[in-house]
Amino acid sequence: PIIINQGDIKMVKKISIITSIFLFNLNFLSAQNELPDLSEEDRWNRASWLMDVSNIAAINYAKSNGDNVKDYGNYLGKLYAPGWNAKTPWGMVRGMVRNNQTFPGFEVEILDQKENMVKFRMNRPYKARFGDNKEVYGVTIKEYEKLWSVFHNHLANHLGFNYNERIKDDWRVITIRKK
Q1: Helices 141-159 and 40-64, interaxial angle, to 10°?
Q2: Which site from 59, 77, 141, 177 is most exposed, i.e. has the minimal number of CB atoms within 10 Å?
Q3: Residue 120 near residue 106 (C-beta atoms within 8 A)
Q4: Within the chain, where are the H helices?
Q5: How far is the C-alpha of 136 from the C-alpha of 131, rounded, in Å?
């Protein structure tokens, strides 16, 4: 017969715990040497986050240099406007929707349309990035949305359109009309 005393049981428990810790650390250390292999969905989410955080950092940088969000939005508008060639409000809407489809969870709905006008709404899938205090990296969600409102207003003027945007709940409600 094998006789096991309390001291043996304690020793087995200690050895088991030490072995478990060793194996956990071994797995942890080997995992640190592996490169991530993201799924396509995770890559899209990461790319979207990096685009957002780049724009957020640029807003913060502009503010740190004495500029405001409107100045930066106009700067982007001047920079990118020559690349936009929409001939109708629908053309601008298509461009905006194409750009915003990079956001996971993006939604758009056409509310009204006429020959020279489109009214639509887009959800705000980036909103969660700003958390409960509605700020990330020193930039508020209001500043972030102001950037894009000013930018799109600049584009619309360049294209010969009027642009109106307002926030209503979780939606950006936008009207684009030919002047």
Answers
A1: 90
A2: 177
A3: no
A4: 6-32, 40-64, 69-80, 89-100, 141-159
A5: 8
Question: Measured between alpha carbons, how far is 13 from 31 in angstroms, rounded to an integer?
Answer: 27
Q: Tokens 């360049």 label which residue?
A: 158
User: Which residues, 6 or more positions from 53, have their beta carbon under 8 angstroms from its beta carbon?
Assistant: 136, 137
Which two three-digit tokens encode residue 70? Answer: 């409107």
What's the CA gap between 175 and 156, in Å, rounded? Answer: 11
User: In the sheet where 117-123 sits, what is the strand order?
Assistant: 108-114, 117-123, 171-178, 161-168
